[in-house]
């Protein structure tokens, strides 16, 4: 059985945002994302065919949506992002690891 | 967009274990479970048609499997339980809320 800890074994190379596959099958993907100040390049958007449920477990981040609204996420905060809801990561805390749990379903 | 916080709005009635649907579609279900000392009745087993990825976010718990093995979970610990892997919750901390995030997929 695959086991682990969401707060452990953080990637050493924090220059890049890291995406780690934890579980999934078919179109379902459960992943941990670790950010350290990265954000989505200006003008780029995530526009996904399926919904994404995302929770922030550590750190802090701000999502932006193409209607101009934003959503600040602190530990424990989650959002269920519908398919084709264009969004981007506007900001992540520069001085700590921000740990996300994302479920694409 | 449905948003919330995994550590907030804990159920007031903690006599029963509570299961809250957070997101999902089709066979995918993302839920928060809050336990306060409850466990699976002796002799009962979870035996599920699909896999379940479960993470413990607060508190402490111990899972038992029908090969006699156990797995203690502390905050951040996760396990990807295969379909038809018979398991039960042997113990949850009696003096605090144990918060689980479960993804049935």
How would you explain this protein's 3D organization?
The first copy, chain A, is mainly β and 105 residues long. The first copy, chain A, has a domain at 41-104: Sandwich (Jelly Rolls), CATH 2.60.120.10. Chain A has strands at residues 2-5, 18-25, 28-35, 52-58, 61-65, 70-73, 77-81, 87-92, 98-104. Chain A has a five-stranded antiparallel beta sheet with strand order 2-3-9-4-7, with no helix packed on it. A three-stranded antiparallel beta sheet of chain A has the order 6-5-8, with no helix packed on it. In chain A, a hairpin with a 4-residue loop joins strand 5 and strand 6. The first copy, chain A, is globular and about 40 Å long. The model of chain A has no long low-confidence stretch (mean pLDDT 95). Chain A binds chain B through residues 1-8, 22-25, 28, 30, 51, 53, 55, 57, 71, 74-82, 85, 101, 103, 105, and chain B through 1-8, 22-25, 28, 30, 51, 53, 55, 57, 71, 75-82, 85, 101, 103, 105.
């Amino acid at each position: 059985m695959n086991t682990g800890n969401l707060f452990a074994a953080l990637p050493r190379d924090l220059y890049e945002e890291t995406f780690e596959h934890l579980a999934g099958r078919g179109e379902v993907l459960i992943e941990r994302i670790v950010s350290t100040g990265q954000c989505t390049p200006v003008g780029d958007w995530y526009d996904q065919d399926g919904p994404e449920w995302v929770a922030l477990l550590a750190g802090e981040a701000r999502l932006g949506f193409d209607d101009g609204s934003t959503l600040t996420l602190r530990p424990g905060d989650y959002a269920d992002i519908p398919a084709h809801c264009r969004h981007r990561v506007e900001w992540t805390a520069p001085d700590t690891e921000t740990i996300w749990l994302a479920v694409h379903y």
